Amino acid sequence: MMDTAVDWLPRDWRETVRPYVFIAPAMLALGVFLIYPVFNTLYLSLRDSRGESWVGLENFEFVFTDDSMLRSIRNSLGWIIIVPLVAVTIGLIFATLADRLPRGEAAAKSLIFLPMAISFVGAAVVWQFVYNFRPQGFGSNIGLMNALWGMFGNDPVAWLSQKPWNNLMLMMIMVWMQTGFAMVVLSAAIKAVPDEIKEAARIDGANELQVFRRIVVPSILPTIVVVTTYMVINALKVFDIVFVMGSAEANGTEVIAERMIRWFFLGNHSGRGAAIAVILFVAVVPVMIWNIKQFRAQEAMR
After folding, report:
1. Contact in structure between 63 and 279 (CB atoms under 8 Å)
2. Which positions, given as ranges, span the membrane (predicted)?
């Protein structure tokens, strides 16, 4: 119908207008669902809790002065460093070892990848049973960690209240989920490395560790960058795990995305929630720019 409508235009206008007519629906969708929310969020971040009165940068001042917000920023930095580093490293090790299995490779990879099929909320519920703690008089402790801890004659511990180790325990949930994804993607990249290059290195006297470090890792570096970027962004916007695992403020486990949801939807303060969202958006942009530059640099080398 749109193409027919363009055909009714004067001949000189048809080919000039036609491309814009075809991309108009996509541009409209992007404008409504992406561009408008960005500017509306920026607008709300400069207004009060109800979005009625202008408050300027007051909400951003709150973000960088409130103790809970500063703690969430520090915790988020830990998430974006530790989670990708550990998950990618373990995933790379698993991918390398699984590829050397004479048989059962698919079954082994399926078991490691299985947590990826669980939602973040579901994973948090599963790990609540791992970290479960019940004070004396409230029933027996069923948590796996306390069961192992009790084998050595120790009293049960409220693991999620142990600062700052409780942050690492929450990060472990995301590592558990993301390791399978890293393993599958990196395994595919490793299989794409030509066997001739590895055999030539072995003939020249390189051992398996040297082949891995000097041949395999440089060859799959673009894939490692992509997987790492994906995990950094996921770690920046993590909310479900922290929210489900108990009171973030009481345990000192706040993260930026959790604060955003907490203020916007539960605290009924759209201004502060929007300001946190803007900061989160600004934090993600450099990661994406760096990823694009790395991708272009690798493409230029090919």
Report:
1. yes
2. 20-39, 77-98, 110-130, 168-190, 211-233, 273-292
129-180 pLDDT, tens per residue?
Answer: 899 888 776 777 788 888 888 888 888 888 888 888 999 999 999 999 999 9
DSSP symbol at 9:
S
Residue that the structure tokens 């490293």 belong to? 89
Spell out the residues 6+ positions from residue 132 whose beta carbon is closer than 8 angstroms to its own. 141, 142, 143, 144, 145, 146
The per-residue pLDDT for 298 is 67
Whole-structure pTM value: 0.85
**What local confidence, expressed as pLDDT, does residue 301 receive?**
63
Average pLDDT of the residues of the chain: 88
Cβ-contact 196, 202 below 8 angstroms: no
Structural domains in the chain plus CATH codes: 19-301 (1.10.3720.10)
CB of 280 closer than 8 Å to CB of 236: yes
Cross-strand pairs, 29: none
Alpha carbons 123 and 116: distance in angstroms, whole number: 9
- Joined together, the tokens standing for residue 252 give 């000192």
Spatial contact of 198 and 58, defined as CB atoms under 8 Å apart:
no
